[in-house]
Structure formats: structure tokens, C-alpha cells
Amino acid sequence: MLFINEQISIPMEEIELSAIRAQGPGGQNVNKVASAIHLRFDVRRSSLPEFAKSRVFAKRDRRMTKDGIIIIKAQRSRNQVRNKEDALERLRQIILDALLVKKARRPTKPSRGAVKRRLEAKTRRSAIKSTRRKVSRDD
User: Fold this and answer.
1) Domain 2-99 top-level CATH class
2) 21-40: per-residue pLDDT in tens?
3) What is the DSSP string of 109-134?
4) Local structure of 98: helix, strand or coil
5) What is each CA distance from 10 to 13, 19, 64, 116, 118, in whole angstroms?
6) In angstroms, rounded to a whole number, what is the distance separating the alpha carbons of residues 43 and 61?
7) DSSP codes, 35-96
8) Does the pLDDT value for residue 112 go beyond 90?
């Protein structure tokens, strides 16, 4: 059972895990040992609540196919168990990020005092810069 939060969990039967050979350098270990994990999770056929499914689809993650299958390849570690844990945690994080509702920003105006201070600072700065100009000779 993969626990997402207090209310949502996913049975391990819905998550397809397969061991594959990792890519990249590593010599004999890479050639012989299937230490990378390929995780597939079908969002449409999962037991996630409908609101969670719609939020995951709305997120438009690049790891999700058009058919609604999340594919994660975990090969950070040389250890298969660690890669499995990493893949499950990344799936959990994708779902958590989709469930997170950002608070709407309410536009605000600067206070009258803040506007006044800003304009006074601009005037002072302008006065300082005007003293640096070349003096013109009016003969």
C-alpha cells in the first residue's frame, strides 16, 4: 500500500513495477544486474478518488502518456530496492503536487505613505545625479 496522505492510498496491485538494466556508465554491474526500476501507474483505472484523478490529469506532467499512464524510470542508485523506493516516492510526489491547491493571489495596492516615500526617494536621487552633470558655460 502506497500512502499518499491521510485520506488517499494506492494498493500495490495497481502499480506495475519491473526491474530493467540501468543505462550509462557502470561497467560489469550495469551489464549484468537489472537494478533500475520501471514504474507504470494507470491513473484512469486506479482507485484514486475522481477529484484526485482530474487534478492529476490537469497537471499535464511530461511523465504521463496520452492514455493516462504515469511512467517513472528510477536508476539513481545501484541498488534495486533503493530505486524501487525512489520510484514510489516520485509517484507519491506527483500525486501530492497535483492535489495541492495554490492559494489565489489577491492583488493589493501600495499604501499612500509607501507611494510618498518612493517618490521622495526618487526626487532625492534625481537631485544627487543632477549635481554630477557637466557645468555648461553660458558666456
Assistant:
1) alpha beta
2) 877 666 676 677 778 888 88
3) ---HHHHHHHHHHHHHHHHHHHTTSP
4) helix
5) 8, 20, 17, 57, 54
6) 12
7) -EEEEEEESTTS---HHHHHHHHHH--TTB-TTSEEEEEE-SSS-HHHHHHHHHHHHHHHHH
8) yes
Answer whether 98's CB lies under 8 Å from 53's CB.
Answer: no
Instruction: Yes or no: say if 74 and 26 are a contact pair by the CB < 8 Å rule.
Output: no
Which of 5-9, 36-40, 47-51, 54-58: highest mean pLDDT? 36-40
DSSP 32: H
The torsion angles phi and psi of 17, rounded to 5 degrees, stand at -115, 135
**SS3 track for 41-57:** EECCCCCCCHHHHHHHH
Sheet of strand 36-42, all strands in order from the earlier edge strand to the far edge:
15-20, 36-42, 69-74
Interatomic CA distance for residues 91 and 39, integer angstroms: 9
Q: Is the pLDDT of residue 128 over 90?
A: yes
